[in-house]
Amino acid sequence: MENETLTVVDNRTGREYSLPIVDGAIRAPDLRQIAGPDGEGLVSFDPAYLNTASCRSAITYIDGDAGILRYRGYPIEQVAEQAGFLETAYLILEGELPTEDELQRWTDDVRRHTYVHTNIEEFMAGFRYDAHPMGMLLGAVGALSTFYPDAKHISDPENRYLQRVRLIAKLPTIAAFIFRHNRGLPYVLPRNDLGYIGNYVNMTFEIGGRHEPNPVLQRALEILFILHADHEQNCSTSAVRGVGSSHVDPFSAVSAGIAALYGPLHGGANEAVLNMLDVIGDVKNVPAFVEAVKDGSAGTRLMGFGHRVYKSYDPRATLIKQVADSVFAETGVDPKLKIALELERIALEDDYFVSRKLYPNVDFYSGLIYKAMGYPADYFTVLFALGRLPGWIAQWEEMLNDPEQKIARPRQLYTGSAERPYVPLDRR
Ligand code: CMC
Known about the structure:
The chain has 428 residues and is mainly alpha-helical. The chain has helices spanning 76-82, 85-94, 100-111, 118-125, 133-147, 157-181, 196-205, 215-227, 235-244, 250-262, 269-280, 286-295, 315-331, 336-349, 351-355, 363-373, 380-401, and strands at residues 5-9, 16-20, 60-63, 68-71, 74-75. Helix 3 (100-111) crosses helix 6 (157-181), helix 6 packs antiparallel against helix 17 and helix 13 packs parallel to helix 16 (363-373). It binds carboxymethyl coenzyme *A (CMC). Carboxymethyl coenzyme *A binds next to loops. Residues 234, 265-267, 269, 293, 301-308, 356, 358, 361-363 line the site of carboxymethyl coenzyme *A (CMC).
């Protein structure tokens, strides 16, 4: 609606201010006309962005109360069921589903860039044998910026396209190298006669030149990647946007996203869920564990539960449960699934979780599936990163193309000392 305003009355002065409401939001800079305590304009205070829209975005829509997630308007259920991962990446990056020709060209472009410079192999060999896979991914993607110095030409759309292709093509290669490094296995080079997922799985699991692909597990992995492909302004995407707003190259911006994803409150939750199920150990211990979470004595939250935006069941978790059925039919059921199901059952009935609207999120069941596929717990978040990559790149490009976007530079509420004279060392 045009000319919508919010009237604010300053009780200190009796003055009235009319703040325009545009697209359902007031603009924090409009508060500056109201006097703040130090003579400067009033600022808004929102350290965790609880109620602050940091950008405009046309990529992903979430209705957290209704449990709705859409990529470029398409319901996640339909995309996950019908699309491939590169097709989903194209949709997220370009805004439209590709035609057959467009998909072919995009797939060929990605296929042509799957190799990494051999110095990257040497770089990776420098990590300790037990280096955490996310630390390695973070380092290796940051290092890519030194191999592609042309990537700093971020205002050139053709150049941006090249870096987009490089990132999406090379991350699976690096991720597979990481998997093998941790096992002391020689790296397997990309096979460009295979599809995106097939090539990645082959580079990961091939032994002695052989790997028997399992189409059910490969499709399950592809669906998991699709379910993770974007999730609007989450912590890692905000990191990519924030760091990218300094106009650094996309490899550095994406490595900031990987760093954010590493944390247990974000992508690292999938690893933390498995560790938590290990600690619980048996279905009979679930009630006591839930009580310990509630009274704080467990020293942890219920990992894989809760979400800043979803206040009902995470639609990705619903789909992941279906993927789990198809995977376990191939691999056999992980005994920990029983513990997870019991945790979910109890939590969904318990007033603590119900009243706080804490439901299973995307990370609750994904780890059990990754484990059944043969990935170790500390590697799960790498798989999340492979899925999230198109979203990070699309959000980075959207940020660069937004004429309103300046360098992200928040204000602060200063809580330190007032001015005081310097005290020389011999008088302290
Ligand atoms: N277990 C127990 N209590 C919880 C949990 C949980 N998993 N999550 C939130 N709470 C409680 C929290 O203690 C608080 O209670 P109170 O009002 O009594 O202080 C209330 O619920 C609200 O929590 P909050 O910290 O204000 O919520 P938030 O929106 O800041 O945090 C979250 C969201 C995802 C970080 C949080 O729910 C959490 O830590 N979950 C566990 C970690 C996890 O599974 N992360 C994955 C998130 S989804 C995918 C992704 O982003 O990677």
